[in-house]
Structure formats: structure tokens, C-alpha cells
Design goal:
Oligomer: single chain
Largest sheet: 9 strands, mixed
Number of strands: 13
Structural class: alpha+beta
Radius of gyration: 19 Å
CATH topology of the largest domain: BirA Bifunctional Protein, domain 2
Shape: globular
CATH architecture of the largest domain: 2-Layer Sandwich
CATH class of the largest domain: Alpha Beta
Number of helices: 7
Distance between the termini: 57 Å
Strand content: 25-35%
Helix content: 25-40%
Strand order of the largest sheet: 2-1-3-4-5-9-8-7-6
Order of helices and strands: EHHEEHEEHEEEEHHHEEEE
Number of domains: 2
Length: about 325
Amino acid sequence: MLVYTDNRRLAARLLAEDLLGWESPTKLPEEIGALTERLFGRKPTLVAQASSQMWSHLFAVETAPESQYDALIDLSRQGVTLPDRLLCFAETGDHFHGFRDRPWSATAGNIHLSARFAPPEDLNDATIGLLALAAVSVVEAIDAIPGLESRAGIKWVNDILIEGAKVCGILAHTEALSDRVTAGIVGIGLNVETTPEVEATPFVPRVASLRDSYPGPGGCNRDTVFRTLLDTLARNYGRLIDGEYEGLLDRYRDRSIVIGREVAVCREEAGAEPNIVAQGCVTGLGNRLELLLDGVNEPINRGRLILDPAPRQ
């Protein structure tokens, strides 16, 4: 894996590897040069080789001027072809966001990661597959932390909660050419060491970090969780391209915290007061993660979710 960074110590901490042979290249491949310009601006960029065989590139930025997830999507729309299994990490940054541009605080000590995949063959339901891949991978990475096993769950459709508090949000985007998915981008914001200040809403009443729930002394370490997350992402991506879509959905369902609970589904307008369009007990999740509600005839594939809402009048 090639590592590009503006902070050698940051890259070494993330990978737990004493990277040698750092160079400041004067010329980069066109597509990599376009990405480094977006991620680093005019700051000097260093590059070294890391030992990982699971990923092709890692871009580790101390302070990102923009959402790296947005930068990857924008470059792809401009026709820039980027490699498969490419990672972008930011220590902190500006203009990061969640679904539908809802603000996301990029706070030091947490994971702000975007991953680009270019599957070799067409994937059925690739957008849902990548979303499930990311959610399951985050849960499995949390499970690997002693004392946090089995405590994280998935709130439909893209949040990870521990004991009712949001610790992670996930984004997924796919690109297609002639009905064939050519690339997918996943964005993951995972609070590990720091709990950001976030105004409570009916959709996200509380936020937390993994350190808040960690039972032992010393708390969770961001860099250790980062490496575990890279392992689970790579393993589950391999399963996805090997055709194990159904198995991935089954693991998503197994860790769902909405099945069997009363929920209210609201319209997605940003900043609007909750506008409930459906309410009922969740009986299951369909093969494209549609929400199935008792007493509601049509599956629901979009909306914001309130857990355990007030009883219907």
C-alpha cells in the first residue's frame, strides 16, 4: 500500500508501522495528483510504502479542507479514474457531513474515513451492499474491543448505536456506466476517543464515543480501532464481491436494533420538524433493507427514524 500524508507521525500511528523511505515526489500519476491536490492543497506531500496488501492507497491528512467523501465523488464525476481499495483519512477537517448534508463534527481522536471500491464485476444492489458492508464492518470492529462485544447495534438505515447513543454514521455512493456499477464510495464517521457536542433531536437524542462505553481503564485507542476497521472492511468487501450479499444482509439484520420495536418514519427534509409518514412495529427488513412495518402495506425505503415514539393518538 502506498501512503500519502502531510504528517509522517500521523501515518505511523495509524498503521503502527515505522514507514521508511519517505519521498516528496515532484511528479505523480495524473489521477493521484488530482486527488492529492484536493486533499492536501499546496502543502508538501510525502509518500512511502506500507506493508498492507489489503489496500492500494492511504491518504492520511492532518486537517482536511473539505469532506474527503465529497472530493472522491466530485473527482469521479469529473472523469478521474481512481484505484480500487483506496482510503482517505482525516484527523480533523472542515465541511464534513452526514446524510443529506447534515453537519458532522470532525473531532480529533475520532475516525473520519472514506473508502473507494472499484469492483471487478457488476454487483447486484451495490449501493445497499456497500452500506451493509460498512455498517457490519463497523459493528465487527467494535466487537473486537474487549468489553464492547455485542453492545453495538445498527439503527436503520445508516447509524451505529451503543445503548441508545449514536457513535457512528455511514454514507454510501455508487457510480454506474450502462447499468454496471463501476465504483462505490463509503464514508464512515466513528466517534472513538471524543464525544462531539451535538444538539439533541428526536432522531438522534444522544451521541457518544466508544471511550464513553469502554469498561476498562485507559479508554479506547483511535489508531487501534482504525486498523481493526480496515481489516473488517477488507474482509467484508471480499465477501461482497464473492457473491455473499445475502450473508452480509443477514449479519446486518442480526445486529439491527429496530426489528421488533415501535418506530416512526418521518420525511427527510433537513431542518424540518418531524413529519411522520408511517408508524408501527418493525417486523423485518427486506432484501434491499426496506423497512417492514406491521399494519403498513408498502415497504419503506427512505425516511428518518424515531425509535420508541409517543403512542399514536
